[in-house]
Specification:
The protein is an alpha/beta fold and about 500 residues long. The protein is built from 17 helices and nine strands.
Length: about 500
């Protein structure tokens, strides 16, 4: 072999060695970046805020504008207002709260003028209002059925009937059942705590009785839940989400295994808001297929691929959630070195603009909202897409920023779907907000004992969250439902108890 050939071989070997070292060095740098992010993540979880609101997110527009200029896209200048502290509004007592007057008067001696002895004349009054609370007060309702008999033959005896009760032969009245249900499913008070609270006012109610009452109530309202589900199937858009739940006694499963509570909801713009929870022992893709068997429309969900099966089979328009995409960039932003801004800030500036447009157009008709999105939102999204494509390959995929950017890229066709229809939402916050009370309650009561209890909880959560979505006070609504539903005989009677048909 000639000297030149040897030099060429040695040169190629050296280049390969250098390339290998560069790869190792790059891998080590990526690993160091990941470990640094991990340390900052632990610190953030331990000491940082959990809110998605960024302390300096409002200052990110300039960063995004510079970046937009770098990719050859013109952009208007945006001025970010500085924060001004607002004066705290004084707490007032609602006008519909009953008033009890306590008159404070002068004594007869004080009503005499000390100068000339003339009796003083009242010229006005000064009023100071206080809000008072009467603790829980128990009342015993006695149902007295009068009996009549014929005075002649004494054989014809008639007893007055009484309305059917939510739980026959039980001491629980509709108001008590409504109070227990709202306390647990709206206020996250476990049944054992409620039992202790009842005991303080002299009433012994064991947790087993309370649990049985709630399961019976959950079964009682099933006709209403069916009608809510029917209402959902008529919507042009449905929100859907799921969250874990532990059920101790499930056939074929250990107590430590995970089950799921699924939730479906109408969009914010619906005239008949409905929220429906559904318990299932798994997170299988079959669950949304069963729940949306006859549905035709659009489905707003997160990135979980278990929803794709029903979207493909039913040819549903699958919409992506911008809140999920934004949240991943917020996580990446928190892990940046303190005091520095970067690509996460740039992405958040784009999404902040999209949300500002949605906020301004939320009360517009769908056709106007669609036009606004095409004129204002689409150019921003196009710029974001160019920005994403130029930077995606240069970001290590296992870092927080890499995960955020790859999520945005993978979900892109679904995320931009909301531009095509003014009725489509920008995110899945409707479902997430509906499922949040369940997540909070789960931290207190931890698990359901049985499938029957989990199904009852799903029904009661459905009715309470739907009542809240329709601006109804949950206790008053449930009390009316528990009073009237046992006596409903037709589907029309049931429909009259749907939240949008009820007057409290």
């Amino acid at each position: 072999m000639s000297a030149v050939a040897k030099l060429q071989v040695e040169n190629q070997t050296l280049k390969a060695t250098l390339a290998e070292k560069e790869c190792l060095l790059s891998a080590r740098e990526n690993r160091i970046t990941q470990l640094e992010e991990l340390l900052r993540s632990f610190s953030q979880r331990q000491f940082g805020t959990s809110s998605e609101q960024s302390s300096h997110q409002g200052q990110l527009f300039d960063e995004a504008e510079q970046d937009a200029d770098d990719i050859g896209v013109e952009e208007d200048t945006v001025t970010v207002p500085t924060h001004t502290r607002q004066k705290k509004r004084r707490v007032s007592i609602p006008a519909d709260i009953p008033r009890e007057d306590i008159i404070h008067d002068l004594t007869d001696e004080q009503k005499i003028c000390p100068h000339d002895g003339t009796t003083l004349k009242q010229i006005g009054e000064e009023t100071h209002e206080q809000l008072d609370i009467v603790p829980a007060k128990a009342t015993c309702l006695r149902h007295i059925r009068l009996k009549y008999a014929c005075p002649c033959c004494e054989q014809h005896i008639v007893t007055a009937s009484k309305p059917k009760q939510p739980i026959e032969k039980s001491i629980a009245a509709p108001g008590l059942l409504a109070h227990i249900a709202v306390s647990k499913y709206a206020d996250a008070l476990p049944l054992y705590r409620q039992g202790a609270m009842f005991k303080r006012i002299g009433i012994e109610l064991d947790r087993t009785s309370l649990a049985n009452w709630m399961m019976t109530c959950g079964q009682l309202i099933q006709p209403l839940i069916n009608r809510l589900h029917d209402q959902l199937m008529e919507q042009s858009v449905i929100h859907m989400d799921e969250t874990p739940i532990q059920v101790l006694n499930e056939p074929g499963k250990t107590p430590q295994s995970t089950s799921y509570m699924w939730v479906m909801g109408t969009p914010q713009t619906s005239q008949t808001p409905a929220i429906v929870f559904h318990y299932a022992p798994s997170r299988s893709a079959q669950i949304p297929k069963d729940q949306l068997a006859d549905y035709q429309g659009a489905l707003m969900v997160d990135g979980y691929e278990g929803y794709q099966g029903v979207c493909t089979e039913n040819q549903l328009t699958r919409l992506g959630c911008w809140a999920h995409a934004r949240r991943k960039f917020i996580e990446a932003q928190r892990l940046q070195p303190k005091g520095k801004t970067g690509k996460a800030d740039q992405a958040l500036a784009f999404t902040q603009k999209l949300y500002a447009i949605e906020k301004q157009s939320k009360d517009r008709p769908p056709d106007e909202r669609h036009l606004i999105r095409q004129q204002q939102s689409k150019p921003i999204i196009d710029k974001l897409h160019v920005w994403l494509e130029q930077r995606l390959l240069g970001i290590p995929p296992k870092t927080a920023l890499g995960k955020a950017m790859h999520y945005l890229n993978n979900q892109w066709p679904r995320l931009i779907g909301y531009l095509e229809n003014g009725e489509y939402p920008i995110d899945n916050n409707r479902a997430e907000n509906a499922i949040r009370p369940f997540v909070i309650g789960r931290k207190n009561w931890l698990f359901s004992a049985s499938q029957k209890g989990a199904k009852a909880s799903a029904n009661l959560y459905s009715l309470i969250e739907t009542a809240k979505a329709n601006q109804l006070e949950p206790y008053a609504y449930l009390k009316q439902v528990f009073t009237l539903l046992p006596n409903a005989e037709t589907i029309e009677d049931v429909d009259q108890l749907l939240p949008w048909n009820v007057t409290l």
